Predict the structure.
Amino acid sequence: MAIKCGVFKTTYEDDEAIWQTKVAKFWLALLLIALIAFPFVFQDSRYLLYVANSVLIAVIAAIGLNILTGFTGQISLGHGAFMGVGAYASGYLMTQLGMPFIVCVVAAGCVTAIIGMIFGIPSLRLKGLYLAIATLAAQVILEFVFVRWRAVTGGSQGMLVPPASIGTFSFNGDFKFYFLALAFTVLAVLLAKNIIRTKPGRAFMAIRDRYISAEIIGVPLFQYKLLSFGISSFFAGVAGSLWAHYIGIITPEHFNVLISIQYLSMIIIGGLGSIYGTIMGAVFMTLLPEILRFISGLFSNQYPILVNIFGAIREGVFGLVIILFLIFEPDGLAARWKTIKNYWKLWPFSY
Amino acid sequence: MESIVQSLISGIVVGSIYALIALGFVLIYKSTAVINFAQGELLMFGAYVCLTLVVALKIPFWIAFAGTLMAAALLGLLLEKLFLRPMIGEPIISIIMLTIGLASLLQGGIHVVWGSETMVYPAIFPAEPLRFGPIVVSQVYLYSIFFAVVCLVLFNFFFRFSSSGIAMRAVANDQQAAQSMGISIKKIFAIAWAIAAVVAGVGGILIGNINGVNTSLSSFGLKVFPAVILGGLDSIPGAILGGFIIGMLEAISGIYLDPIFEGGSKEVVPFIVLVVVLMIKPYGLFGTEEIEKI
């Protein structure tokens, strides 16, 4: 195994490769095999498969938010509602217009992208906290539409959505759906990883770092900010659509402001402006309540009250985790991972 | 006609609560440049503490009221010291996220301690409503408007004449200049959080007397955004006026729009106003416009 101690690239292809070393490729292949093997090993546990599917969907949506917030620097408190737009659009297209699943997913992404761009228009004039408040308003307004536009959304009773299917093959049940979600997640990660290496991606980062300088060197701010809102909402829409076809019933509570906050916390804990970080953050934040549930289940015999106040504990711990991360590891899990990796890379001569 | 006046009055009452929360919110923003998403939880804290003092410990209301304000001030100081001080100099998104985390933590903590059932204050204010011709106003409403106005006037004088108040305005205006005049910025930040917690506590006690106390009280914290954006994020008179306007707007939309949308328009109308204000006049009625120079 060659140890990396310099740049020895001889072709442009090598230089542009996403995974640069053989070691990285090896671990990636191992990870993929593990991900594919996972459902076969835990085939009997519906609960584990459900958690895994939730994680995969969360990764897709969180990557979308990180493109907007981490790479372009535009804070959004409306990501949950955008997921809802995707879910309702997909459900409506399938149940009312009888479109096939693949068309529904893509169309849901596009509809959400358009809605996201509409709510992104204020970003031309607003920055930072003003934009955060404007997207909060988008969240509230969209939630109102979900509840009140009964003809399309089914109101607070919700909308029944048939499971996803391609051709005659139906992805019903946790086991089959896992592979669909995994495929979409891999696509989403690759897409995002490549978007940030292209011209728009560089423009996003220029806007984030110093928007005045970006404008001076010829980045049209408004156009790229809108594009970022569009791409981010597209991911949210696809994730929402998958969620709708997985759960089977969508109600407005699935997409409230708490979900938006949860997604923001994922990318902050994972690391703003890092795709790997986003994945880690999404995994961490989706597993956290499940781990808490497990722990409180262990103690529920001695302290039966734990069952009643579990929701409160979950909320409190959620807040505490966010605060601790912001104070002690503001760059997120991605930065921590890098530190650990670098430590071992140079071990035992880390100086 | 009477029903319209009636709901306008309740709109003014709710507006006075909004004005109180908005006051605390603007205070924190003005002196520390922190957007506080936990303002609604501070309100809830005040409502629960006072309720516990009155009901469980059987302390007379006025003493409990004073005790609650002290507890709220302590909580404000504690939050600032523990959580906000390490964040000085961090980017806006981290600070927004921190106060959101704080809101979640407080909400969870309050839920664990007090449970989720609605609790009701014992009758503290005389139950008999006052009649002005055909219009009936319950006394709780009058008291809460009275308290809100007293608070607002008191704080107005505090900022105008007391040395701490003037120091706070100085810090808000220019931190470096204030520091070079010998003002301790840390102290000002702490005072700002304490005062914000106290005014939110007053609002909590008032709204608790009207509606009862449960964990949904924290939704007032989100309603404060339309009020402060309308008034201007860094203007205290703006926050107060914005609070009253949003309160009345909710009442009016409740009358005219609820029949069309089958209820719920109260929740969304303030936010539509917010978007419109942001589009037309982002710095609100009285906020200072930020002019960027290259």
In short: Residues 2-215 of chain B form one domain. The first helix of chain B runs from residue 2 to 32. The CA atoms of residues 16 and 244 of chain B lie 6 Å apart.
